[in-house]
Predict the 3D structure of the following.
Amino acid sequence: MKWYLTKWFPLMLVMITIGAQAQTNSVRLITHDSFAISDELKAEFERATGYELVVIPLGDTGSLVNQAVLTTDNPLGDVLFGVDNTFLGRALDNDVFSPYASPLREMLSADFAGDETPDAEPYVTPITYGDVCLNYDIAYFEANDLPVPATLEDLTLEAYRGLLVAPSPATSSPGLAFMLATVAAYGTEGDDSFLDYWERLVDNETLIVDSWETAYFTYFSAAAVDGDYPLVVSYASSPPFTVSEDTGLPTTASIVADGMCFRQVEYAGVLANAANPAGAQAFIDFMLGEGFQTALPDLMYVFPVRADVELPELFARFAQVVAVPAEITAEAIAENRDTWIEQWVERVGR
């Protein structure tokens, strides 16, 4: 036995050491499927920090957060990016993150310097934002001499029957954001709650699908070859990416009337029990850096949270920022989100 220990114990120590070095020499990022980073930016981060960036996509935002909650004791990564203000409360309630305040927080736009709830601020850092709004196919509305809907209620009128495709709030983060806008507009009690509103939408032949990608790229008439729906739940920052080479103008536009849009903020945080918390902190700092923030519009069609970075020309011209988004507090979302989704599923049945 002594011979066995003498021979193998040093080798075991070497193997353990190599395994630990492999973990700490890489930064594992868990994120949603829409995350994007260019090869150049990835190489820049790795060159500047000495860490290898490993990206682990885990589905949509809801799936990402659920898996982070289930693996808190043995996390799938070191850093999480992509939890938004619709799911932030669930992550915080389940102690998903370790505290970290990036020194670059001082570069945040004034709109986001105090954006988090007081309990959230030590744990997560805002990285991007975007307004979830209705987008429309400009050519369709012009060809049919149809006015663009000016209110949420307009969508229930006969003139807009069968024109809207929306992702489900039960399976899609943009879908949930749009549902929250209807919660803010109609409330949750009485004879005309948000649930009654959604029943009217469905009665007016609104199509509900599983994801934003399906809604936009399969059914939206301005993006899908066989799309039949000229209205879609998307982002006010989507139109710049529909600019026609022939006209130099977008083929879509957003409806940004007061109260019709919901502002999504996406956060990053160091995962509790991460194997490489220092690397996770380094990547959060990198995401707040000028290079990554400047690239965000082209990478993920969202706005940077730093006010000092220059937006791409088409983004600056055609992306819209909503003046009066729907108002609903992070505390109300955290407390009621699951109940509202369950009620929606029971009433709408999608």
Residues 287 and 293 are 7 Å apart (CA to CA). Residues 1-22 have pLDDT under 50 and may be disordered. The domain at 2-129+264-318 is CATH 3.40.190.10 (D-Maltodextrin-Binding Protein; domain 2).
